[in-house]
User: Fold these one by one.
Assistant:
Number 1:
Amino acid sequence: MTISNIQDPTLDTVADVLRLRNVTKYYGEFKAVDDLSFTLPRGSICGFLGPNGAGKTTTIRMILEIIKPTSGAITVLGRPSALEVRQRIGYLPEEKGLYKKMKTWAVIAYFATLKGLTKKAAKLRAYELLERYGLKDFANKPTDALSKGMGQKVQMLASLAHDPEFVILDEPFSGLDPVNQQVMEEIIRDMASRNRTVLFSTHVMQHAERLCDRILLIAKGKMIFDGTIPKAKEVIPRRVRLETEDDVAPLRELPEVKSLSLQPSSNGSTHWELELAEHADPQAILQTCFARGIRLRSFNQSDPTLHEVFMRLVGPEAKEASFR
Amino acid sequence: MKYAFLVAWREYVESTKAKGFWIGIFMMPLMLFLTIQVPILLEEKATPIRYFVLVDQSGTLAPAVDAALERTYQKQVVEALKHYAAKYSKPGRDWVAAQRATSALPQFDGDSAQSVDAFKSRGGKESFLEQLRPCLKPGAPAFKEPRRVFQAVPLPSGINPDADFALLVNDLKPYLRADKQLLVNGQPADLYVAILIPKDIESRIVRPKSQASAIKPQGLTTNYQIQYWSTDVTPAKAGYGLAHDVEQAVNAEVRRREYLARGLDSVVIHDVDRTYAPFASLNPKKEAGQEAVNETDVIRQWAPSGFVYLLWLAIFVIIQMLLNNTIEEKSNRIIEVLLSSVTPGELMMGKLFGIAAVGLTMVGAWMLALFGILSWKTGGASDFAGQLLVILKASNLVPLFSIYFLLGYLMYAAFILSIGSVCNSIKEAQSYMGVLTMVMMVPMLTMTFIPKDPNGPVARLLSWIPLYTPFTMMNRANADPPMFDLIGTFVLLVATTVLALWMCGKIFRIGILRTGQPPKIVEMMRWAVKKSQ
């Protein structure tokens, strides 16, 4: 069997790298994943978000065919079985671990051979990756000599050593320092730029916000949101924050303003927070302020963050789940 | 299959790098070597010279004791000469000549006064070595006499040998307790033993049916018995060593006098004591003319027990390794990465055969070491090592050992992989392992019993329990078990192993991804028998 590890993905005619159709998974009586359907186009970076226990890891395991769905169909790289195309998939699990006594290069090379590389090619690739990512000095040390962050980096390299077309990363940023989080982001972007497809789960919304073309938000096993980030942000109204000593009553009557409330600021004083109606223009607020002589100390118009979207969409459920 | 092989290869390479493997490899040869060599070394080097004082207030028994100790020593000299001749004689015709010379050495059995005297009268050691000289290999070292371990020394100055025992013992105690030291040839030395013979020992002799003497006074204040004082209690109790020799010597002398006193001829009595009817143990299974049971037969009977022990050890060491490796992957969560690349079946097969290869390497090294050490230590076909070598080469012990090792390992590995797949740490595995170890103790407990009744009901029953088949059938290997047992138990063992592995596969698939508390054994059994999804 000859497996070229760097298959040109453009040769593959299947546009969708991943397709889930009505996937459901029961653990006994417990429904971990509930009728999940989505597709991932080639070359996309997709954030897989959701509170703890939402069913992310279960979904990922089903995609990788580590466990089988109770019902529904999963197609990976055009095949019904991920194991058929295992050489073309990379996976970094949520809980990271390495063989403690094995040398660092050997761990990377071992996982690469399991993905179809020859022993020789795998060894070369391991050294190359370790050198590129600043771990050359640890290549011949056992992995228990690595710090937690370094170990995680090594595992990341191990999951990418065969240059997969489709990579699933479960919490790739946890445990990394800011510098290495940056490195990780670059790795992900680099893969996408080479038409590789990345699906990653995270709890840190900033990463998702910076990286993703698209987010999938699930809670209690159900799909809550599937779409681009701008679309996600439309879910919650835009807001304007202003600071003034004057009476803001005139603003209440504007059709653009849905609600108005006094909020404490971080510096000890207070500010007004205005929730805007859909498609409202914040400029209208500013004009009204000038017209009515409301003197502003500050005027801030901000898009909602993904964090806020997340809290809005799954906040109550996540809370409920954690107190269950 | 390619992926299972990759997993197996990693298991093999990493396990053979581990310390445990090398300890396992060297443990057996080291133990074998030590069991052969240490007693010899201790005998030669570690036993210090034991100094003793003999106070004979009766004045009549000391010469008899001295003579007896001298005879004991001469026995050792003769043994050393025999060993020397066997070890350094040239092979071939000369070796035969040396054997003949050796056979001229006195055989010591029973009362050896005569034979030692005969040895001495034929010129003793010097004459023997003279005869041996032409037969020796070139470069053979000169014969070294064994050391005299027990040496008599005079009483320390200032101690009155005629004093009452209570006083005498009081004076000697500091020396015996090593609070004070003797001076021997100007060197300080510890007093090992004090032997005190009371003045009136003649009147204290205990005779059967003699009521008067049978009443023993209490305590040690009265000097009615021969006293052997030493802080080292072992030789006094164990029936050998100085205390034994002294007691024997004294009683031999006392009896000799008794014969004289009762008007009996002690020489006649001695001859009568050595009168016997010839007796032979024969084995009907052996070839005609060779039926006599000899040392080789005894070794043949017991050699399988050694292999049972090795088998047990090998399986135990290897399954432990398998457990550690499985739990490592599980506790480090490496398993998820693995399962995104290989199926649980491939992973299981890989681990199973990778560790099997480790085990075969270890067992192979043991066999090489066994033959190596035996060939190196043997001085010819006559000694233990030589006989064992002959038996091993002639019997099917080694091939049977390999087969039973492999099957036994695979069967127990099924349990281990099931346990390993559901446990997140070695600690969690302990409780399951406790049960398994208890199950595995049975062959160890019956190991020495089975050779005594190798085709009896217990042996047969255990043979038909697949968990014990490898050990028990190995144990019976040299006792010609019935063909029915041999083949029947083998078939049953293979079937059980296949079934166990099949069930293990199902448990492994479910267990390996589980986190949290390990399940009850009953629950695992349910996984094993339920239809796969």
Number 2:
Amino acid sequence: MPELLAHQLLFVTGKGGVGKTTVAAAIALLASEQGRRTLVCEAEPKGDLARAYECGPTPFSGRRISDDLVAMSMDTEASLREYLRVVAKVPTIGHIGPVARAFDFVATAAPGIREILTVGKLCFEIRAGRYDLVVVDASSTGNVVGQLAAPTGINELIRVGVVRSQTDWILDILGDPVRTGAVLVTTPEEMPVTEAVDLASRLASETPVHLACVVANRVLPELFGRSEEQVFNELTRPARLDQIAGELGCARELVEDVLAAARLAVTVRRDGVGHLERLRAEISSDVPLLYLPYLFARSYGLRAVRQVANALSEELVT
Amino acid sequence: MSRPESRLGSGSGDSRAAQDRTRHLEQLLSAKEIVVACGPGGVGKTTISASLAATAATRLGGRVLVLTVDPARRLADALGVGGLGNVARRVPEEAFAEAGVRPKGELYAAMLDMSESWDALVRRYAPDTETANKILSNPLYRNISRRFAQGHDYIAMERLYELHEDGEYDLLIVDTPPSMNALDLLDAPGRMAEFFSSRLLRWLIVPYRSRLVTLASRPFYQVADRILGSQFLEDLAGFFILLQTMRDGFVARAEAVNRLLRDVRTTFVVVTTLEAVPAIEAERLIESLKDRHLHLGLLVCNKVLPGAFSDPPVGRTAELLGQHAGELAMSLSSDLPPDPASKNRPPSEMVGRVLDEVARSFANFRLVATREAELLRELSAAHEVTATVPYHAGHVTDLGGLLDVGAKIWGDDAEEPQRWSEVRVDRSARVRGGPAPARAGRRGPDDVPQREKEPSAKPVRASTDDELSEPR
């Protein structure tokens, strides 16, 4: 099992809303700070990556975030144009009229075309050696399997031509567990964990990409140990509430509210632990499970990326 | 024992607003025939849709159908219908009886089966059975119907149209698929129509139909042959030729679906949480609905922290508790048994630790609650009717749970005041026009202990909403 940051291509995925972008941005930040030339790519150009780094737009051509870090957004049409120019050696797209439009159009319907333009571009960056690591803020659960399975599908559909030979080396990169891995992000909640477990098995059965690690994001801190909780329960008895209220010189209801808030925190944390146990039990035991804490401070932006990166680097060391 | 309304941020002004919301919702769901729930992924759209449907069936009557795309068994279990499929199932009377209500109407639930719905469409629009079978068995078609993510949006809208046409239900509530962009949904019918009428499609398949490579398409085929191989292109073209046979049906249908979404009988409900990223997406969605002149009936903010977290008097009490943890621990532990885990340590040590932890945890959650309050203020400024559904750690596991959530959205669950510590779901629903959420400064948890240097006298309990925002 190679160390996470030693991979060349990482697809970060998970259910919508679990913090994929922040985790992808944090992985890329960490890698770049270790001196690895890193490209981070947003597969669905919604501007989330730009928000995470608090930088301007991240175009297909890339935006340099620091010396060793470049951020970009996927654009299948631009990818096609680059592909035609660089790989298929078609001089300029302008001369062949609406080919790009036609392709974009075909890609809307034909299976795998858009997907392979995405995956192909990322693999190409690896192959060209411009970057040591490419981190992909990949599509959410629903689409990522299609994306990663596309090269295999196309390889089966298309028997000849340039594409056929292209898919061969793409598959070599995707299927190599030393070079390529998927990072599955989830939160300690019911649906995200269920989807993560489901996605892990679909990745294994339908795609060539191996699961590098599972990240449990937004894990709440443990409030009390067992004996502390007994003390806490004692404090919530009416007589104790009155006692505390008397000492502090405030209304009993206020004290009750404060303790009830702690009770909620304990309950939420406990529910989360249950879901994490299910996650651990259902994911193959040789896949590492990393825990990232819930951030009570600002929940997105560069500061959040920084905090997640710090927590992640601690997790990677241990 | 009940508590004054104001402590939860739902004082008299607020309950008036809640009454307004109840009336608004009843009017909305009585007047509209279609409710489309949309919003970012992971915010609980499915639960909110099912809650709205269950509550409408219970209170307003009629035949109500909730159409979900969520394949989780949880919802089916909660509704007591066993399994969900393309065919609607009626939620049994017993489920309502267990929840202690007698519904005025009937509740049905169905799940959207993508491949099945696509197949049904093909059968309807193919010119004959033979063509239909050819399309259905085409490998490209199987691929598209399962994977074509944008198609899922279309299918959801298409099924909605079909159910509405059938006229079997008085109210249809649809929970939408998690698209890459919530707005895709709105454009899906238009794109589908465009796809089939596109000149590009015809241009693409002409050479394979006529076997005459026209001048216009030659360069494309030269390139395409080289890249994809002509066999694949021919397969593709063959498939498109088959698809063309369904064109007129599809185009007319997509246009009809589009009209229905814009129809006066349709309304949209935007669901979001008060986290930064989903809130941004919800805001974009609201703007976009406005741009398209689509009717936004309601904004639901889900999983909102209990109001007490952002209630200044409660916050001050938590701070006091933290500051005086040591003294409190001494007096509280005088009659406590010693810590069984470490008999040589005085019990006061552990009590102090627990109190510290309670205060720190409160400060953490208060920070989140404050941020939520600000986001709620910004979001609800964009729309007249906003409902909040409080965070509940327990999951909705039965119809009663769904109805509880529905009551939060309705805003009229306040008949029996309960302490928020005792109820599974808190009532802290606020509407625009209610109290301004308390706005504390953005401080890190670490700042909190220094906030009140002088442990001021008894915190005054806010008795009106205005006092909630009094300066400290």
